[in-house]
Every structure is written in structure tokens, then in C-alpha cells.
Fold this sequence. Notes:
This protein has helices spanning 46-63, 99-105, 134-139, 145-168, 216-219, 225-236; strands at 6-9, 13-17, 23-28, 31-34, 39-42, 70-73, 78-82, 85-86, 89-96, 112-122, 171-185, 188-194, 202-206. It is an alpha+beta fold. Strands 8, 9, 10, 11, 12 and 13 form a 6-stranded antiparallel beta sheet that branches. The longest helix is centred in the middle third of the chain and has 24 residues, at 145-168. Helix 1 (46-63) packs parallel to helix 6 (225-236). The protein is globular and about 50 Å long.
Amino acid sequence: MARRKKIYEGKAKVLYEGPEPGTLVQYFKDDATAFNAEKRDVIEGKGVLNNRLSEFFMTGLSGIGVPTHFIKRLNMREQLIRAVEIIPLEVIVRNYAAGSMAKRLGLDEGLELPRPIVEFSYKDDALGDPLVPEEYIIAFGWASQQDLDDMIALALRVNDFMSGVMYGVGIKLIDFKIEIGRLYEGDFQRLVIADEISPDSCRLWDMETGEKLDKDVFRRDLGNLTDAYTEVARRLGVMPQNATQMVKPTLIN
Length: 253
């Protein structure tokens, strides 16, 4: 079997050339990183869980008319996606104070915000993904004003969907980040949700206990990350109710 051409490898995923023009295969790794990759580990089963959960969220978003790059899940670790031009920004939506916002503003973690707040950070690990105002984004040509308006609208639609889904299974959506890409179809361009949506990119707290069910478990050494992600998947019906910790499958080259 011919080995596929690798297009890009990031901290948690690898992109390979897809079977048809305009497509890519996105492979989910078991690597876990935090603090801009200063903390690293390999968590068995994490990639399988994130693949299944991201499929669940992307499919749900498509079902309500939010465009995404997702086409279909290929196997336990891979998805077929549309090739897009990633805008070099992370779009962050915050419903409650936590993480860097709480530290930056001296707020108590868990404080409910008056309304969802959308922030942008410039994607650059070496710089620590700094927050950037809209004026910077437009001045440096990363996105136009129309792009920004559309990105905010997309992010808030994702927030409405995600908040509702999580509330239904007893989980509070504290915040999340997404990436958005430009999908070119001939002369037509549209913005779509790209990358992934998973507990790697969200803060998820149990509504009753406040237990963290996201990557903060790894960041703060709060327990077993796979157990936390499995609990999210189990509540959402992505994994069987009697599922145990995911075992890394044997991969055949």
C-alpha cells in the first residue's frame, strides 16, 4: 500500500493528502500538550475519543446549517475533511470566567459573564497565542471586517448549539475555541468551522459537582484525562453506556 503524503503535523493531529482533490484526511493523535506545548504526554485513547466527539459536534452543527469542513469519519482515528485555508486566528467564546481570562482580570473562576464574550488570539505558539483586537486583525490583513462579522456570528451559533447540547447532559460549557477556514468553490468563498471541536478545545464542568471534564484535567494534574473524555462521550451517547477506558488500537501500515 502506498504511503500517504503528509501535508501538516500539529500538536494533536496530522493532515494527509485526501483521496480526491480538495480533500484531506485528518488523523487524531494521542499526544496531549498544554501551556503552548511546554507540558507534553501521550494519553492512550485520546485521539479516538476526540475523533468521535468532533464528528458528533461537526455533524450536529451541519444539521442546523452551520458550515464545517467535515465530510465523514473514516475509522477510529481519521476523518475525511475539505481542504480549507485556515485563518491564523483562534476564535474564543467565553460564557464563564476561567483560565487566562480569570487570571488576567482577577475574576473568580466560574463567574457567569453578563453575555458570551468573543475574543481573538493570533495563532503563534512561539508568541503564546496573544490576544489581538479587531483593529490588528484588519490592519495586518488576517481577515476583513466582513470576515470578522461572519466569524463572530458563526462562533455565537456554535455557542448556542454547544451550550444546549451540554446542558442537556448536565455539563456546563465554560468556554471554547474554534478555528475557521476559507473554503473556495470556484470563484465563491465561504467561511466554515475547521480543525476540531472536542474536550481539547472546550472547558466543560459538571453542572452539579463542578468536576472538570476537559483538558484542564491534564493541565492541572486533576486525574485521568481519558476517563474525563470518556465520561463526556458516554453522556452524549457517542460511546456505549458500559464503555471502559479506550485502548489504543493496533495500526497497520
